[in-house]
Write a structure and sequence with these properties.
The chain is of the alpha/beta class. The chain is built from 7 helices and 11 strands. The protein is elongated and about 60 Å long. The two termini are 28 Å apart.
Amino acid sequence: MKVIFLLNGKIGGAFIKHVCKISKIEIVACISEHPEIISDASPGTPIEKFEYGDNYQFLEYYQFDCIISYNWNYRLPEEICDKYNCYNFHQALLPRHRGPIPLVFTILQNDIEAGVTLHRMRRDFDKGEIYAQEKFFLTEDTTYVLLNLKCLKAALVLLKRFVSEYPNIKCVEQNELYASYESLKELDKYVITEETSLEHFKRIVRAYNDVIPLLCARDDKVTRVVNFSYLFDNPNFTKLLLKDAIIFVMEEDWNGDKYDKLLYKLLEN
């Protein structure tokens, strides 16, 4: 089976490194914003450097059966989806958690069950027909990094099944009754205030992976929490009152530009 992969970041590199071991897959080429990471993981594979706004004309130079994306947050043009067999691994159980950062919201919303969905790529983001899902349960201490690794393992299970069944692939429509979508703007709901519980604070920390700014609103001012402690052990820390606890934080001024390059930083991980 000849496949072109769309991949980004370290997790994309880890994914393709494992794909190289699947004998039934011939990696025709990889498309990435981080070609140096992907080339290290898959030596000898042709790498196309992706730039935002590309029209994917380079696909015409390759012969392949399908396109598969992993850790890829760009919409494919409708003509590409119609012309080729295009599939995407979405790191959530669609139709729940559509959007660019499903791992983050899986933790923020305290989901008990998580997983990966392999679905057709269509014009509408994350709305393509579903091939299959691989599910697993979450624990209360699940972090972004751990969830990312669990999704990687689940995706590889799905991929092996997909390859064994190709081209006799059957997909089903998503049930819109269970759909949810979270944009980056939804993160505004998770700014720390005096109404935030300690449990909720810990959940936000686990979800943000030191990439998303941990913001605090008090005294009509928003600051970024750059460090924190549950015990007062540093004179540079100040007291922060939560709904049911006191913690100690080190803050810095925040310019309000919450989402500049945020998605790109998450994709690098």
